[in-house]
Amino acid sequence: MDTDQLTGIVAEVEGSGIDSLEYNITRFVQILRHLGVRVSLAETMDAMAALARVDLLSRGQFRGALRACLAKSGREAGIFDQAFDLFFTTPEEKLKRQQLRKEMLEERERLISGAEQELMGVMDDWQEELPEKIALTDMQLETYALLPEEEKERMKEILERMKANPVNNPGELINRVLQSSLNYWRYYMLKNLKEKEGARLAAEADLTGDEELDEVIQGVAAEFYHAPKDRIMHQDMENLDDGDIPRVTAIINHISSQLALGISRRYKRSSRPVAVDIRRTVRRNIKYGGIPLELKFRSRRKKRPRFLLICDVSASMARYARFVLQFIYGLSSAVKEIESYIFSEDLERITPFFRQNTDFSCSMTEIVNCSRQWGKSTNLYQSLKTFKKLYGDTISRETIVFVVSDTKTIAPVEAARLLGGLRHKCGELIWLNTLPAFEWEKQPQIGAFRKIADMYPCNTLSQLEKAVRRHVLGRYA
Length: 477
Fold this sequence. Notes:
Elements: H1 3-14, H2 21-34, H3 41-51, H4 59-70, H5 74-87, H6 91-123, H7 138-145, H8 149-164, H9 170-191, H10 211-223, H11 228-234, H12 245-262, E1 267-270, E2 275-276, H13 278-284, E3 297-300, E4 306-312, H14 318-331, E5 336-343, E6 347-349, H15 360-370, H16 380-391, E7 399-405, H17 412-425, E8 428-433, H18 445-450, E9 454-457, H19 461-476
Parallel strand pairs: 4-5, 4-7, 7-8, 8-9
Antiparallel strand pairs: 1-3, 2-3, 5-6
Helix pairs in contact: 2-10, 3-4, 5-10, 6-7, 7-9, 12-14, 12-19, 16-17
């Protein structure tokens, strides 16, 4: 293809405003980022430069140039291909999908409204007396509407039995029963979804608020439930099957080993010829007119970060805790003096269990058998008081503190106050919240903790990897 023809094609494609090539590439990069693909500004610019060197009328060349610059692993290439096929399509196909999405959203609103009326109708005469109101998300209400009739009747019977047998804090109990059951059913229906029914139940995704982009993101997210590895990476850890555990273990070990290898990438001065320090060499040889007669060297910096993990192992968190602890355990070979604590009603130090040179399964079994906190109710306030009294001196400005919890705790205001004191002593305070981000607005205690800690959703392995990678490699690489 000659230069004049290529110039004409680029000018025709770019146009102006929202029809420009740059605008559409930027939107496509936004989709990839919301799907967990790390794309930097430099990589986006590289992609634009690559497109100037290929035949834009060739879909294969166009796809290949973008994928070479934006996808850096096999998994990211798979996400890229799915997103590319959905985003770069004909206007007629986009219009058809947008119309279908509009009809589906209207149907979804009808289902949610009907489900809410049906459930609230069962509890009308006693809902007012509950200290904590029944709070279900739109996704959970949608799931209820799509349940088989016999399962709906079973849930209604459970509510009726709770109504006839009052218990302490019934609102919290009912919320947990309903939410756990509906979350499981949502996962089950997504996992066993037939392709023709794929649009009826949208998979959870990190949406943008832009209708066109969100349509692509949800379309790709739905495919995660068909590929075993991607399904596990993006599925709520609470809903993982026991049969998935070996695969989950292998994935966690692989990710943590990759992160461990990347932690110490900074260099220091060295007298041994390991790697040439270009900047110091140039400065040293200015007196020779720039001729490199005297070489200076550098080597890997040995310094490693300090980790401190405070992990909630209460009844609602026990399954998440197992995977988070395994993830941190995998980093222990590269992280200096990693300290691990678990809590529910109070705090326990479990670091010695991870220093016995045994595999993780044996260590975890021993922890569960010896712990007095596993599976109890949550009291972060009391746990932080214990930590301050017994282990407060172990914190320094070199310490990255990770708190893993769903924020559902007794005395959240008092706990936030103690957490603020901890924040002033450590280098970073990261809160990994196992509640999906779309539920945060309905949990008032989250606001108190977000003022103090950097909070990230962490109910999937993908989110866990992203948070740790950002705050470990981002700081020490």
